[in-house]
Structures are given as C-alpha cells and as structure tokens.
Amino acid sequence: MPMNGDARPLTVPDLIGMKAAGRRIVVLTCYDAAFARLLEAADVDVLLVGDSLNQVLAGQETTLSATLEQMIYHAASVHRGSRRSLVFVDLPFLTYQVSVPEAIRNAGRVLQESGAHGVKLEGGQPMADTVRALVERGIPVLGHLGLTPQSVHALGGYRVQGREVGSADRLLADARALEEAGACGVVLELLPSALARRISAALTIPTIGIGAGAGCDGQVLVLHDMLGLNEAFNPKFLHRYAELGEAVRSAVRAYAADVRGGRYPGPEHSFD
Ligand code: KIV
User: Fold this and answer.
1) What atom in ligand 1 is closest to the CA of residue 221?
2) DSSP per position, 106-123
3) pLDDT per residue over 62-100, tens digit each?
4) Higher per-residue pLDDT: 6 or 160
5) What are phi and psi of 183, to 5 degrees?
6) CB within 8 A of 132, min separation 6: which ones?
7) Residues enclosing ligand 1, CB less than 6 A?
C-alpha cells in the first residue's frame, strides 16, 4: 500500500487495506485540475468529484439538477490534474435509480470518458442490486448513507439522520447490504457519532464520515467549505482550515486599487 510521498498510484483495493492497517483515509471534494494538483501534492488519498459542485460551483439550491455531462466534464479535469490519488465521481440523481442497465451505462460512461476510478451513489438496501451489477462489471462503487442529499426533499432538509432506534438499525442493515453487494466503501453523512462508530466496526470496508464523528475510517469535507470559500455555510461539523474568502477579497481589492492607481502593470511586467 503506498505511503505518504510514495509515487505509486493508490488503487481501489488499497482502500480496504488502509482500513485493515488502521490508516485513516483522507478524502476531499475536487472539481477541477488546478485543485487536483494542489490536493495531490498535499497527499489527499481520494478526490471526490461530488455532485455538490451543482451547489458550490453552479450556485443551485440542491444537487438534484446536476447532469451526467457536468460530472464527466469535471471528473475528466480532476483526472488530468492527478496522478496518484483515486478519483471517485458522484452519479447524479436519476442516472442510476431508474434501472440497472441505465446505471451500468451511465457509470461506465463516467469511467470511460473521464478516466476516473469509481463512482459513488446514494442509498442502501434498495440500491444493493445496482451496486452488485456495477461491481460485477468492474466498476468500483462507494455507497452513501445517512443524509443523502439527492433525497433532501423526502428527508425534510439537511439534518442528522439515524437518531431513532429503528432508523439506526436500518442504516446498519443498509451498510451491510452495500458491503455484501461489493461496495469498496461507504460515505456516512450527518449521523450520530456512536452510530457511525458502530457501523464502521461492523464492516470490513472503510467508512468515510462527514458530520459523523471520529469513529469512521476516513473523513471527507467539501473543499470550498474547509477552505473558507463558502462563508455562509457554518455547520457544527465543519472546521475551516483557511480563510480563503478573505484572502481572495483582499488580493482582488489590492489589484483593483493598483489598476485604478496606475501602479499595475509596472515596467517589470511590460515588454520593450
Ligand atoms: O457531493 C458531495 O460533495 C458529497 C460529499 C459531501 C460526501 O457527496
């Protein structure tokens, strides 16, 4: 299994090996080649081309209107910017729920046209046959349980899931069904820490938490949120590792002042 700074690209089986070795998996969302290069240089294991790009980049309220073409375009950009990290791509709403053959065709297109290594899809037991069909055709699949953003209207908003005994047991059964169907990992979003820890202990495949506490085998955050580029979004689980929103504003103000004051470009930026 590659370690920090190793030149060998990470593989999908390595992910399961990382859980067995007790090595936590570092995942961030990534939507373009420029950030892919930076994230990889900082040793991120998995670049997730999340359908959150529909909110973060396109300014939509939900992920629901993301298209397969959008995802393929951004995944291809991320793939071009990375050499060592694994690239997983969200299958957008309605590209995998209608039928298994449609899911195979759409997931296959993502891998074929973008160069990504695998796909992520939302849902538990009802999606197990689809996961199995994809995995049997050589398409690695990450599951996604808990707050599944493509079901935001059915769930009644972006809120913590699995607080009642029944729903906690159902989530555990969902996670087991995904593992049994061949998923190589499961994202757990907005779950009580104790439940996420229980699910993680019950599985041999890794869990990747977001708002699910420290008991998961890895963590994922939306890159723009953790960099402070999405300043209006301040959920309890988020830790901001930078304040790039303020850095961008101050750099652009300095540029504007230099342009207006005739200080930029100077002779050192100009051609004879
Ligand atoms: O779309 C996304 O960015 C995701 C992560 C929040 C896990 O699914």
Assistant:
1) 6
2) HHHHHHHHH--SEEE---
3) 999 999 999 999 999 999 999 999 999 999 999 999 999
4) 160
5) -60, 145
6) 181, 182
7) 29, 50-52, 90, 187, 189, 210, 220, 222
**Do the beta carbons of residue 31 and residue 77 sit within 8 Å?**
yes
- Is residue 263 predicted with pLDDT exceeding 90? yes
> Whose Cα sits closest to atom 6 in ligand 1?
222
Strand positions, DSSP E, the chain:
25-29, 46-49, 86-90, 118-120, 141-146, 185-189, 207-210, 218-221
- Alpha helix (H) ranges present in 57-127? 68-81, 100-114
Q: State the Cα–Cα distance between residues 28 and 49, nearest whole angstrom.
A: 9
Q: How far is the CA of 55 from the centre of ligand 1 (A)?
A: 11
* Residue 43 pLDDT greater than 80, yes or no: yes
Nearest CA to ligand 1 atom 2: 50
- Tell me the per-residue pLDDT of 178-219, one tens digit each, with 9 for 90 and over: 999 999 999 999 999 999 999 999 999 999 999 999 999 999
Mean pLDDT across 247-266:
98
Q: How far does the centroid of ligand 1 lie from the alpha carbon of residue 50, in Å?
A: 5
Pick the CATH number of 12-241 from 3.30.1330.60, 3.30.1330.10, 3.40.50.1580, 3.20.20.60: 3.20.20.60
The answer to whether 164 and 131 are in contact (CB under 8 A) is no
**With bands split at pLDDT 50, 70 and 90, how would you rate the model's confidence at 4?**
very low
Residue count (the chain): 272
- Residue ranges of domains in the chain: 12-241, 244-272
Specify the pTM.
0.96
Q: At 242, is the pLDDT very low, low, confident or very high (cuts 50, 70, 90)?
A: very high
Q: Which atom in ligand 1 lies closest to the alpha carbon of residue 120?
A: 8
